[in-house]
Amino acid sequence: MGLAGLRIVLVEPAGPINVGSIARVMKNFGFNHLVLVNPQCDPLSPEALQMAVHAKDVLESAVSVATVPEALQGCTRAIATTARVRNWDSPLENPRTALPWLLEKPEQPAALIFGREDRGLSNEELNYAQRFIRIPTSSSYPSLNLATAVGICCYELAQTDAEKKDAETMRHGDAQKENVPASPCPRVLVSDNEPAPLDILEEYYQHLESLLLKIGYLYPHTAASRMEKFRQLYNRTQLQTKEVGMLRGILRQVEWALENRNNREGF
Amino acid sequence: MGLAGLRIVLVEPAGPINVGSIARVMKNFGFNHLVLVNPQCDPLSPEALQMAVHAKDVLESAVSVATVPEALQGCTRAIATTARVRNWDSPLENPRTALPWLLEKPEQPAALIFGREDRGLSNEELNYAQRFIRIPTSSSYPSLNLATAVGICCYELAQTDAEKKDAETMRHGDAQKENVPASPCPRVLVSDNEPAPLDILEEYYQHLESLLLKIGYLYPHTAASRMEKFRQLYNRTQLQTKEVGMLRGILRQVEWALENRNNREGF
Fold this sequence. Notes:
2 copies of one chain form a homodimer. By secondary structure, chain A is an alpha/beta fold. Chain A contains 11 helices and 6 strands. Chain A has helices at 2-5, 16-28, 46-52, 56-60, 68-71, 95-98, 123-126, 146-176, 198-214, 223-236, 241-259; strands at residues 7-11, 33-37, 63-65, 77-81, 110-114, 131-133. In chain A, strands 3-2-1-5-4-6 form a 6-stranded parallel sheet. Residues 175-190 of chain A have low confidence and may be disordered.
């Protein structure tokens, strides 16, 4: 089920701009199951639809219910979000620590619950969840916009999901290794974009040194120590083969300009 | 300087709702330095102020400039955000991997650059940055709202900052246990070895371009795209101030050799 099955539950949302923005960011990160508890605005109002842009389908398929327990029907795991720290004994966890738990049983429905823009969730509503998260914010202005909070949580969940899939692919890849030739490179690179072989680099350094001696930038007795600095600089950047080609092109063109100095004007 | 010193740079933002939301989320996560490049809307319009809620001070102290280089003046590190993957050779990194780099030198100004709502940053604008991030999104609707993207990046940076502070507190505690003052800085760096400010880099690129045009390596109609490759190469390597000095020394020496071509022998 994964992200697509995870319910994003909004309790009494009042701002259509927020609801529309939330639909958009849900779709951006692969979510599509929006549940509204007693919404205080029309999720299909022009403002909501405008903010949703290409996520109107998320708004159109949103489910409205009367209470939090109805929104959680069938779920085995629920996390509630809160900004409050008073009159609340349960630990408030960091999203990065707690949210991955929602994805641990992908075959079972799970929910992430957000409260009202102005006063969040009541203690009674919080208590329908098993864990509680608070996005850490600055004490000078701690209150996040609702859509921002949903966006950050969707982003965190999508990161967790991607890491899980990467880990699975790697495990799967390991199993396949016995019969199937390994993929040449995990990153998509064409050959010219690959790091240059060291002998190509060495030819460039030799060429650079000989030109710098010729034009009087280097002196024979200090050339080696100066060239060390250039080697460090270019080695650090991991030059690609085509970049070495470009740099040698400059050297050749300088040589050409110097050799043709008597035949040209304008320098 | 930390989060408060980090510049959030918006290039030609057009939506006052976005700009206001961005001011709010910046303040939520401890940022206050907003720079607008040629803004296409009034950052103090009623809609922007309404979305900012208690972050009007961030909008009021926002700086408007005409170009990206002006926005980056004095910065030594800049990361640009992009959604595009076409016609772009440099790697697009995950925010979680790349953003902590902006906080590594808290005493030096750094910037995080976001493009236009509808078409992001041009390649020329991207190339003022040294690293590039893309927030991973669903292929079914990859385009994030601008304020959502800024919010996620501010959240990531604040998480990194909090983790750093936690680690420092722990180290400090350990050091005190033994009655030994903590080492002030693990790496010894003198000023010349530090990353070159971006305006010094820009002067080098201008100098390189003008010389390459003069010697016929570049042609006016293709200079910009060719120079992009060199910018990517040198930005990737994080040139130190003294290295830029060495590279400019080569350019000056080549110019000298060309100018004195009639008075010298041996080329």
